[in-house]
Amino acid sequence: MKASISLVLTLILAVGGAFGAQAADKLAVAILTFAPGHIDDAWHGWSLEEGVTNLVTDELVNRNKFIVVERNRIEQIQAEQRLGASGALEVETASQIGKMLGARLAVMGTITEWDMKQTAGIGISFLRVSGSQAKVTLTGRVVDTETGQILGSLSGSGSKTGAGISIDNFRGISFDAEQFRSSTLGQATMAAVKQFVDNLVEVIEKADLAVTSAAAAVTSEGVVLVVLPGDQIVINLGSKHGMKMNATVNIYSLMSIPGLKDPVRIPVGTAKVINVDPEASVAKIESKTQNIKQGDAVSVQ
To answer: Do 184 and 88 fall into the same domain?
Structure first.
């Protein structure tokens, strides 16, 4: 029986495609542009927000755990809608951007600390090499774009002491450049990014469980996918939707009536769930007033 059920479900769900099924298992996350905190004036005009946001996004993508919205899409939405143009984002704005991007979670980040102290140095060629002490701290919040609820807060920090390049010589250097990454500031930045993303993954995974559990608790309506011989039906509610063995479902035929926006549900029978798979279930029809057909609506009692 399980083999035949699996075959039927495979044929039905194949329409969605393998890629769609894989993507549906991952939570979509949007890393919004980081806001600057209390940063020394010497760093203004360095595009720190864009650089740090890209580093965090790349690090999260490399973990291959979630669907991460592309940076250019986020920047396009923010530019077109002028959302967050005034600086730090509000939770409501972050939720709005996330919804427009199709992301369930939005990450609001702040560059809380970005500091490099210099000691006396000497000039070598066009560079000025010196001793330096760098510290970078990033903070963030994860927002459920559907509810506007803050699901968790996190931070990441890194510090490094050693030889480094003077602040003036960082101008124009890309965050991806080896010259930056090998500097004390670059190493402190990458350490902060890694710790931030480590903590971000933990918060998102907890949020994913909460979102999935909430969805499962409220998903109680579906449709008949297939009518099988022996008064059995396959419905599109499975264990991931909260379906349980021996649950009773009501079955309705949908009738469109002129003047009404939604179709009227006509009760046509009941069925008892006898097998539950992750995506669908099989139920045995216990009563019916007319023939039950594919597309009929079902609801869990």
So the answer is: yes
